[in-house]
Amino acid sequence: MDILFINPPWYKDSGNIWKSVSACVPPFGLALLAALARERGFLVSILDCNALQLGLDKIEGYLPDLPPRFIGITATTVLMENAKEVAKIVKKKYPNIKIIMGGVHTSVAPEEVISLPEVDYIVIGEGEYSFLDLLLNKPPEEIRGIGFKKNGKFLINPPREIISDINVLPMPAYELLPMEKYYSASGSYKRLPSLGIITSRGCPGCCTFCKGNILGEKIRFRRAEKIIEEIKYLQENTG
Fold first, then answer.
1. How far apart, in Å, are the Cα atoms of 122 and each of 45, 58, 68, 127, 146?
2. How far apart, in whole angstroms, are the C-alpha atoms of residue 204 and residue 186?
3. How far is the C-alpha of 219 from the C-alpha of 213, rounded, in Å?
4. Under a CB-based contact definition with an 8 Å cutoff, are residues 130 and 146 in contact?
5. pLDDT tens, position by position, 210-220
6. Which long-range contacts (CB under 8 A, 24 or more apart) does 185-192 make?
7. pLDDT grade for 11, boundaries at 50, 70 and 90
8. Which of 239, 182, 191 has the alpha carbon at shortest distance from 23?
9. CATH assignment at residue 13
């Protein structure tokens, strides 16, 4: 395997009550990265600890015996502590593996995340093509939108330009996810299975409680044809 993506769990111990009161949505960012990597011939897998209701105490048993080239971990701020623990578990099992950390928290606090001893690279902001450059072994000094370690120092490169036309991106690799496990927050759907999809990127707002513009302040929309194609795929393949 070239890369294993891990979506951290919401809770530390398996069997936590949280799973009965929360929503469970796919890790869209990881599924999109997986689709891009597969387009270029890489072998990819996704471990969604949240969907599988795995606590930190169960994750090691789901890691493959043979280490992949990379482990990619995503995290929002509220999930960051669990993401750190996942990185520790991974590094203990595969001491020489390269760990890439991305997601919202990495984008708002890159210095904090790259300073973690288990993390080798971080991807900041819109990370699709920065991530692909890492997979393709491009020298990290030449990759915009990442951070890395060199000679004991933490280095953060200039930001990458936003993707002006998000219609060039593929559909998320839904077939790598346990689609039957996902559901919206209780009461917000008429029947199951239930799923939302992403139809745009970017946010011009400046809400004090949110960093919504980490994917750019300009709103970029997907074409209606692409959205309809995705809806049809989800209906026909996942119900």
1. 19, 25, 18, 9, 5
2. 30
3. 9
4. yes
5. 877 788 889 99
6. 185/22, 185/23, 186/21, 186/23, 188/23
7. confident
8. 182
9. 3.40.50.280
How many domains in the chain? 1
* Element of type H or E holding 121: strand 121-123
Rounded Cα distance, 27 and 112, in Å: 23
Q: Which amino acid, residue 54?
A: L
Query: Tokens at residue 121, please?
Result: 């690279």
**Structural domain containing residue 206:** 1-239
Per-residue pLDDT tens digits for 41-90: 999 999 999 999 898 999 999 999 999 999 999 999 999 999 999 999 99
pTM value? 0.92
Which SS3 state, helix, strand or coil, does residue 217 take? coil
CB 100 within 8 A of CB 72: yes
Question: Do the Cβ atoms of 80 and 13 come closer than 8 Å?
Answer: no
Estimate the share of the chain in helix, then strand, then coil, as percent rounded to the nearest 5: 35, 15, 50
Confidence band of 12 (pLDDT split at 50, 70, 90): low
- For residue 177, the SS3 value is coil
How far CA 96 is from CA of 59, 93, 234, in Å, comes to 18, 9, 38
Q: Of 55, 109, 49, nearest to 73 (Cα)? A: 49
